[in-house]
Amino acid sequence: MQANLTLPAINLAEIQDNLPYHKVKITGQFLPNKDIYLYGRRSMSSEKDGYYLVTPFKTIEDKVILVARGWFSNRNKNIITQATNDQPHEIIGVTMPSEKTRIYLPANDIKNKVWLTLDLKEASQTLELNLENFYIITEGQDISNLDILLPLSINDLAAIRNDHLEYALTWFGLAISLIVIYMIYQRRYMAVDVIPRLDRWIQKNN
């Protein structure tokens, strides 16, 4: 992966193996009103809670690719829609694989555009688009030039992934904790209520 990131950006058609972690450049336009807010804490910001702005991008080759454009804090969620227009742009970024839905995570909140897992098959169905089987994390400042949308960096690729996965691990820990609490409750319920009632029933019917 690291070797690919140090090379100049190439066109999508030059990717022979169709594998992720290629530095690419694409030209086209964003599709308005189809943004996804991918939840992820950001270690590089004083405001931790927020989202990665992910928008479908239609290339001049008629391919549609989800693009992670930057990070914004939760308090700016209501105005981030200003970031998307349908003007032509060239984008440089890194191709990334689809994420897998995990059973211990809540379902994506489609109504409010808040996603916990960037499952590209689910995104294709939800957005009613024929998406490519990878998405792109952009390099540098977003074309919107909005101050509220913090730029991403290829050099921080590992941190970006970890910031997003941190939330998944938090949910996993919470799920385990709830299971433990439920088991403790069930054991106490059996000891205090069910077993004594069963003993009384046995004694009564003997």
TrEMBL record:
Alphabetic keyword roster: Cell membrane, Membrane, Transmembrane, Transmembrane helix
CDD domains from the UniProt entry: SURF1
Stretches of the chain forming a coiled coil according to its record: none
UniProt-listed InterPro entries: Surf1/Shy1, Surf1/Surf4
GO cellular component, one term: plasma membrane
Location(s) in or outside the cell: Cell membrane; Membrane
Name of a matching Pfam family: SURF1
Transmembrane segments: 167-185
Membrane topology value: Multi-pass membrane protein
Assigned protein family: Belongs to the SURF1 family.
Protein name: SURF1-like protein
Species this chain originates from: Rickettsia akari (strain Hartford)
